[in-house]
Design goal:
The chain is α+β, with helices and mostly antiparallel strands. It contains seven helices and 14 strands.
């Protein structure tokens, strides 16, 4: 076994599920503090994995994109509201509210939204961001600076191997999850998004669409899907699965073709977090889509 993989296995072995999710929450909170104290660019460069994916507007290698651009004159702050870690302790995710304001005190405009971040544990035991996407939305009920307890998700009982147990073939399972994501797109094209997602949503699913508050639970998620008529399809560009096989993620681009059948489709980036349900099937735990900006006028 390569040294890096051996170190990673040892790090996962040393952590219980509770300790792992606590360490992820602490990493997210430290990341948020760094963004306020040191600036967004420096914080992201410190916490992004070398192969991390950001969306500008489609999925791109995040670190290279950031290094080549000046630090923006903004203050980006956030806090985690929810955190969950795979039983192997190697993959986790967080989401919560964010605020964006100018560094210029004369500019009082504030933007709000919700972020969703997938994290992967590194060989040294620390956490790094693998994929990060969010949406804009209404002002949250509790300000980002307000200390709020973080909800901790739990892997469904009897699903996934704990840290130290026999590991799955991660590459093979990732391909299966990507195939499942593509199959869901085909069903959406044929029957509509609401019908496609029905029965494939976790009981605590969070569905995020730009400009709206997160829709929690299958009924609210399906209602939000129904508010966007048209043919929704997507193509995953990548993803991953935890070594315990209970948590995975996919991301890529999605198109919403007009219900009238005429006109150009509206394109978005998407990120989808999946949990393995008892019995072996995958359920969507988080579904977030962020629209591409409108094309610039010609001329």
């Amino acid at each position: 076994m390569p040294v890096a993989l051996a170190l990673l296995a040892g790090a996962a072995l040393s952590l219980s599920a509770d300790t792992a999710v606590d360490s992820l929450i602490q990493a997210e909170q430290a990341f948020a503090r760094a963004s306020v104290e040191k600036g967004m660019k420096e914080a992201f460069l410190a916490y992004l994995a070398e192969d991390a994916i950001l969306f500008r507007p489609g999925p791109i290698p995040g670190k290279g994109w950031l290094r080549d651009r000046p630090a923006p004159a903004i203050v980006l702050s956030w806090r985690p509201a929810y955190a969950e870690v795979a039983r192997a302790g190697d993959v986790g995710f967080t989401f919560g509210p964010w605020e964006l304001r100018s560094q210029d005190p004369k500019d009082t405009d504030v933007a709000y939204g919700t972020f969703v971040t997938v994290w992967r544990r590194q060989a040294d035991g620390g956490w790094k961001v693998a994929v990060d996407l969010g949406t804009s939305g209404p002002k949250p009920a509790a300000a980002v600076a307000t200390p709020v307890p973080v909800e901790k998700g739990e892997t469904p009982p009897g699903v996934g191997a704990a840290a130290g147990a026999a590991k799955i073939d991660v590459a093979a399972e990732t391909e299966k999850l990507l195939a499942a994501d593509r199959e869901l797109s085909l069903t959406s094209a044929a029957k509509g998004a609401v019908a496609a997602f029905h029965g494939h949503l976790a009981s605590h699913v969070q569905l995020l669409r730009d400009g709206a508050a997160p829709a929690r639970g299958p009924a609210a998620a399906e209602a939000e899907l129904g508010r966007h008529p048209g043919k929704l399809t997507w193509e995953p560009a990548g993803g991953g699965v935890a070594a315990s096989g209970d948590l995975g993620y996919t991301y890529g681009t999605a198109d919403l073709a007009p219900a009238t059948g005429t006109g150009a489709p509206a394109r978005s980036s998407y990120q989808r977090i999946w949990e393995r349900a008892p019995g072996g099937g995958w359920k969507v735990a988080v579904d977030v889509m962020n629209p591409f900006p409108p094309p610039k006028p010609a001329g």
